[in-house]
Amino acid sequence: MAGSAVPRIGVLALQGDVREHLAVLTRLGAAAVPVRRPDELAAVDGLVIPGGESSVMDKLTRLFGMREPLREAIAAGLPVYGTCAGLIMLADRLADGISGQQTLGGLDITARRNAFGSQLDSFETDLAVPDLGPEPVHAVFIRAPLVDEVGMGARALATLADGRVVAVAQGALIATSFHPEVTGDTRFHELLLTRVAERAGRTAAAS
Amino acid sequence: MMTDTTSTGSTGSTRVKRGLAEMLKGGVIMDVVTAEQARIAEDAGAVAVMALERVPADIRAQGGVARMSDPDLIDDIIASVSIPVMAKARIGHFVEAQVLQELGVDYVDESEVLSPADYVNHIDKWNFTVPFVCGATHLGEALRRITEGAAMIRSKGEAGTGDVSEATKHIRTITAEINRLSSMTKDELYVAAKELQSPYELVAEVAATGKLPVVLFTAGGVATPADAAMMMQLGADGVFVGSGIFKSGNPAERAAAIVKATAFHDDPAVIAEASRGLGEAMVGINVADLPAPHRLSERGW
């Protein structure tokens, strides 16, 4: 629980590249655990929503009673990092979802699903992310979403050369259109752990 | 052409090709033959659809040469859903694969379910921007497909039967062979590479990591939520369901039930609940009753 020496970080494990995120978090010294149930969610200090198919994750979070606990945890300040489908799940507004698709929300952004086209348009490129230091992030975009609009509450962390936004942050939430977990760049996950430590520090100070 | 994975702004790299399959993990890929079926699959929680003209059960029943689908059908299916769309090319038919890439499918399945176009060579899959999934019955076959550029492997099973026994055999064979490699010394690995008829470097990589370098799904005969969950418990990263959904009494409910059972494959309570009230499963054929020339899994080598 919050405040313990080794942070316990969950990876939402309903569908997607759960294994890769668990491996990065373990490498960083966190206790990384898959999360599929409300009681498992209640036991983590931070959460990753992985890459995958956002329409499937939405359906399964609703079917298995995870939607409201996730929304409540986000509203209560749980640090969460979403990649690709995870960015879509964290967006307040969604363009091009399947009929009836819902998001969890939390980030004051509009996400556009499959914004680059089909798999033939999937690509990798080097990306400047000033918050993470001068070294660029090698970013892998796989049928990736884009951030169409960044609202007043959220802040862009990275843009493509043409100015389109592909990474955002707001409070304890971080989201990227791309997949640092498949390249071995651990800096976004370290940022999540920083958010977790900040929250633990605040909780300790308040008690 | 195999694209440099470190250059900037590159499409069609190995990482991007294998990456899409990584994102499909824990999901169900469903065979569909119409745009309407594709929408039902998407609504039920499919992670991708496989567009084809006839499901394997009908290919088996009707006989004749089975080929790539009509481009109009594939266009219709691509236009009707927003999840990834895969489509099948015949083994060795690199021009069907070129056409499928031109149509903009997200993955090409070089599939034994269609009639092979070449009984010697598989497609050189490094020549494409679109990624490929290929079938395998054992580890050597999987490694040869990966050597040719496959970015995802599915164990073959016996398509169009609704009999899961071959799927079980193939996933068990592949995982057992990987486990055996992991326990070998380096001198033994040279012999293993010879016996697997696969490059030593790839064999050594699998031995070191204890898994294939690409995602491994299971296919061929999965018809029920319990079938899907068993494949997952046996080590599959996800499942393909072919005839099992749209040859059953209630496709939408069965599809959704298989999605649930795949995600919660280690939770018998969820699988029990998902298995209730689904109506008729596909009738099915026992693989043991199939004469050898009609066994699709023996196509490809």
TrEMBL record, chain A:
Protein name: Pyridoxal 5'-phosphate synthase subunit PdxT
UniProt catalytic activity: L-glutamine + H2O = L-glutamate + NH4(+); aldehydo-D-ribose 5-phosphate + D-glyceraldehyde 3-phosphate + L-glutamine = pyridoxal 5'-phosphate + L-glutamate + phosphate + 3 H2O + H(+)
Domain of life: Bacteria
GO CC annotations on file: cytosol; glutaminase complex
Active site: 84, 179, 181
Organism: Mycetocola reblochoni REB411
Annotated function: Catalyzes the hydrolysis of glutamine to glutamate and ammonia as part of the biosynthesis of pyridoxal 5'-phosphate. The resulting ammonia molecule is channeled to the active site of PdxS.
Keywords for this protein: Glutamine amidotransferase, Glycosyltransferase, Hydrolase, Lyase, Pyridoxal phosphate, Transferase
GO-annotated biological processes: L-glutamine catabolic process; pyridoxal phosphate biosynthetic process; pyridoxine metabolic process
Enzyme Commission number: 4.3.3.6, 3.5.1.2
Binding site for L-glutamine: 52-54, 113, 142-143
Pathway where it operates: Cofactor biosynthesis; pyridoxal 5'-phosphate biosynthesis
Listed InterPro entries: Class_I_gatase-like (IPR029062), PdxT/SNO (IPR002161), PdxT/SNO_CS (IPR021196)
Classification via CDD domains: GATase1_PB
GO molecular function: glutaminase activity; glycosyltransferase activity; pyridoxal 5'-phosphate synthase (glutamine hydrolysing) activity
Tagged with keyword Iron: no
Quaternary context: In the presence of PdxS, forms a dodecamer of heterodimers. Only shows activity in the heterodimer.
One Pfam family of this chain: SNO
Similarity comment: family membership: Belongs to the glutaminase PdxT/SNO family.
Classification via Gene3D superfamilies: 3.40.50.880
From TrEMBL, chain B:
GO molecular function per UniProt: glycosyltransferase activity; pyridoxal 5'-phosphate synthase (glutamine hydrolysing) activity
Biological process per Gene Ontology, one example term: pyridoxine biosynthetic process
Positions of D-glyceraldehyde 3-phosphate binding: 172
Active site residues per record: 88
InterPro entries linked: Aldolase_TIM, PdxS/SNZ, PdxS/SNZ_N, RibuloseP-bd_barrel
Any one Pfam family match given in the protein's UniProt record, by short name: SOR_SNZ
Catalytic activity: aldehydo-D-ribose 5-phosphate + D-glyceraldehyde 3-phosphate + L-glutamine = pyridoxal 5'-phosphate + L-glutamate + phosphate + 3 H2O + H(+)
UniProt keyword Glycosyltransferase, yes or no: yes
Keyword Chaperone: no
Residues binding D-ribose 5-phosphate, per UniProt: 31, 160, 221, 242-243
Biochemical pathway: Cofactor biosynthesis; pyridoxal 5'-phosphate biosynthesis
Record EC number: 4.3.3.6
Assembly with partners or alone: Homohexamer and homododecamer. In the presence of PdxT, forms a dodecamer of heterodimers.
PANTHER family: PYRIDOXAL 5'-PHOSPHATE SYNTHASE SUBUNIT SNZ1-RELATED
Role according to the record: Catalyzes the formation of pyridoxal 5'-phosphate from ribose 5-phosphate (RBP), glyceraldehyde 3-phosphate (G3P) and ammonia. The ammonia is provided by the PdxT subunit. Can also use ribulose 5-phosphate and dihydroxyacetone phosphate as substrates, resulting from enzyme-catalyzed isomerization of RBP and G3P, respectively.
Record's protein name: Pyridoxal 5'-phosphate synthase subunit PdxS
Organism: Mycetocola reblochoni REB411
Gene of this entry: pdxS
